[in-house]
Design goal:
- The protein has 367 residues and is mainly alpha-helical.
- Among the domains are: 88 residues, no CATH class; 67 residues; 71 residues, no CATH class.
- It is built from 18 helices and no strands.
- Helix 2 packs across helix 5 and helix 7 runs parallel beside helix 9.
- One of its GO terms (cellular component) is mitochondrion.
Length: 367
C-alpha cells in the first residue's frame, strides 16, 4: 500500500514535466496563437474615438494539416467552413489565421491589412489566394500589393478570369513573378490590349507560341509598348542587325528601348566592330554577343565591347540625335511636298472638269 502511494505521488510530479515537454516540442502553436491575438489587438479598434479593443475570444487553430491539405493549402482554406460568433471580429481573425497558414509574417499581414483602406479583409484574402494559386510565394505577393495596392480593388470574378487567361498564355506556375514586378497592370489593363500584343508577335513578327510565352515572361514591358514601336523594334533587329527569332528571344532584346539599341548598334558599326550578316548569315568580322551589347552597363559596354571612351560615345550620341532629327524633318518635308503635289493635282483636275463643262455649255448654246 505504501509503495502504491509513492507511485501515485510520482505520477503527480510527472504531470507538469509532461506539459513542459509538450510546450517545448510544439513552440509554434503558442507562438502563432500569440501572433494572431497580437494582430487582432492592433487591428481591431472601437468606433468611439479609436480606442483599441481586444477580442474576448481568439479561435484556437489546428495547425497540423492533413497531407492532402498540405499539397494545396489555399484550396483547403477556401473550402473550409467557418462559424463566426461576431461577424467583423471573426472575419478578421479568420483572414489573419489564413494568411499565417499561407506563410505570411506578422509584419506583412499588419501592413497588407492597412495598404488599401477601402478593401475588406475578405477581399484581401481572395486576391492573395489567387496569387498563391498562380504559383507566387508570399514575399512576391507582399511586394506587388505594396507597390500596386489598386489590385486589391479588383472584383474577384475579374481576377479569376484574368488568372485563367494568363495560364492559357503560359504565365502560371511560378512564371508570373517577373511579370508582376515589371507590369502589375497586367491584371487591370484591357484584355483586348494584351490580345493585340500577342497577335502582333505571332502574326506580324512570326514568333511561335512558345517564343511569345518566353517574351511575355522575360520582357513584360512589351505589354505597355505602342504596337507600331514594337513592330519597328523587331524589324530593326531582324533586317538591320540580322538577328534571328531565337536570338531575339534568348537575348531579351525587346525589353530595351529603341534609343539604346540604335545608339549601341550604330556606334559599334561605325567603329567597325559590328557587321550586318549577309543572306547566308555570314560576316567578315565576328560580331560581339548580343548580351555583351545590350545586357551590360554603359561603362562595361564601352570598356569591353566597344573599346572606346565615354567622351567619344557621348559625342556620338549627340551627333546621332542630330542625324535623326534631320532625317525626320526631311521626311516631314517630303511628306508635306507630296501632300502639296496631290493638292495641285486635285486643283488641276477640278479646273479641267470646269473647262469641259464650259465647252459642253457652249456647244449646247450653238445647237
Amino acid at each position: 500500500m505504501a509503495a502504491f502511494g509513492r507511485q501515485v505521488l510520482d505520477w503527480h510530479r510527472l504531470i507538469p514535466l509532461t506539459w513542459a515537454w509538450m510546450a517545448r516540442q510544439t513552440p509554434h502553436l503558442g507562438e502563432q496563437r500569440r501572433m494572431t491575438a497580437s494582430l487582432l489587438r492592433k487591428l481591431t479598434t472601437a468606433s468611439n474615438g479609436g480606442v483599441i479593443e481586444e477580442l474576448s475570444c481568439v479561435r484556437s487553430n489546428n495547425y497540423v494539416q492533413e497531407p492532402e491539405c498540405r499539397k494545396d493549402r489555399v484550396q483547403c482554406l477556401l473550402e473550409k467552413e467557418w462559424t463566426p460568433v461576431e461577424q467583423g471580429s471573426s472575419e478578421l481573425e479568420r483572414v489573419i489565421s489564413s494568411l499565417l497558414d499561407m506563410g505570411f509574417s506578422n509584419a506583412h499581414i499588419n501592413e497588407l491589412l492597412s495598404v488599401q483602406p477601402g478593401a475588406s479583409a475578405q477581399q484581401l484574402l481572395d486576391i492573395i489566394s489567387e496569387f498563391i494559386l498562380l504559383g507566387l510565394n508570399p514575399e512576391p505577393v507582399y511586394v506587388v500589393l505594396k507597390k500596386s495596392p489598386q489590385l486589391l480593388k479588383l472584383p474577384i470574378r475579374q481576377m479569376r478570369k484574368r488568372s485563367s487567361y494568363l495560364r492559357k498564355l503560359g504565365l502560371g506556375e511560378g512564371k508570373l513573378k517577373r511579370v508582376l514586378y515589371c507590369c502589375p497592370e497586367i491584371f487591370t489593363m484591357r484584355q483586348q490590349d494584351i490580345n493585340d500584343t500577342v497577335r502582333l508577335l505571332k502574326e506580324k513578327c512570326l514568333f511561335t507560341v512558345q517564343q511569345v510565352t518566353k517574351i511575355l515572361h522575360s520582357c513584360p514591358s512589351v505589354l505597355r509598348e505602342d504596337l507600331g514601336q514594337l513592330e519597328y523594334k523587331f524589324q530593326y533587329a531582324y533586317f538591320r542587325m540580322g538577328i534571328k527569332h531565337p536570338d531575339i528571344v534568348k537575348s531579351e532584346y525587346l525589353q530595351y528601348s529603341l534609343t539604346k539599341i540604335k545608339q549601341r548598334h550604330i556606334y559599334l558599326e561605325r567603329l567597325g566592330r559590328y557587321q550586318t550578316p549577309d543572306k547566308k548569315g555570314q560576316t567578315q568580322i565576328p560580331n560581339p554577343l548580343l548580351k555583351d551589347i545590350f545586357r551590360v552597363s554603359e561603362a562595361e559596354f564601352l570598356a569591353r565591347t566597344a573599346c572606346s571612351s565615354v567622351e567619344e560615345f557621348e559625342v556620338f550620341k549627340k551627333l546621332l540625335a542630330r542625324e535623326e532629327e534631320s532625317d525626320s524633318s526631311t521626311s516631314d518635308d517630303e511628306r508635306a511636298s507630296l501632300d502639296e503635289d496631290e493638292d495641285e493635282d486635285d486643283e488641276e483636275d477640278d479646273e479641267a472638269e470646269d473647262d469641259e463643262e464650259d465647252e459642253d455649255d457652249e456647244e449646247e448654246e450653238q445647237l
